[in-house]
Amino acid sequence: MENSTLSFYFNLTMFTNIGHHRYPAFVFCLLLYVFIVSANLVIILVISQERTLHEPMYMFIAFLSFNSLYGSTGFFPRFLMDLLSDTHLISRSACFTQIYVIYTYASYEMTILGIMAYDRYVAVCHPLHYHRKMSRKTVFSLVAMAWVFPGFVLTACISLSAGLPLCGNEIQKVFCANWNVVKLSCVSTTVNNIVGMLLTIATVFLPLFYVLYTYLRIVAVCWKKSAEFKGKVLQSCLPHMVSFVIYSITGFCDIALGRYNLEEINPFVAVILSLEFVILPPVLNPLVYGLKLPEIRRHSLRMLSRYMQ
To answer: pTM for the complete prediction?
Structure first.
């Protein structure tokens, strides 16, 4: 596997320090995965079955939960197998498939949060035009754009990385990441770096700045309103703000970690930081929306009690 043209497998090196902790880690992560699937499925089923929840805000929450299932399924099964395995080799095709799934999950999360910010902006700042601006056709058009655009640009970016000749096979992570593969290249990666930078701007920073802009506008509208109005706005916007802050922090940790020399960081800390953006949003999103939004909470409890009888 030392020859760049014959390297068909990558070695995920961050598993080497787990040792005898692998079995408790496996049980914990398996329970975490079961919770993610169960909690997000409840949110999706409640919103899809209750006609009163067929509103744009709730539909976006359902799409967010679906994305959590998509990202978790692209990460956890392989991760759980690696926890119990003595070797941590992954084929090139499986590695780039995992990169695509995890990176599209990450991009979809940010673009969906951007659309949700637009929905709250229209609801607060243009309430009389809300139903006209957020029609069902508009909702599905926005969601389609949020899914198609990141998928297209990531396909182009990952295709460039897949064509690089590599002079190594060790990836300092517990899952495949595009930047870690690019660093193994035997040739110049200037084009990859430029494309990666443009991709980050398009799928991370533009939605990020747009969300910040919409909430500045919402704050400006609420500034002169009554306390009752501010309370209603806070109730509907707070879960989205919490999801956005959590995802931004965890995403930043992963991006920063990819550019840092991992040999200078405690291996356990490095693994935790790299897993945050894959694990925390799928775990916390259903809790945040299920507990903070009374309509979802009420219908979720009703559905769960009906199935438990």
So the answer is: 0.88
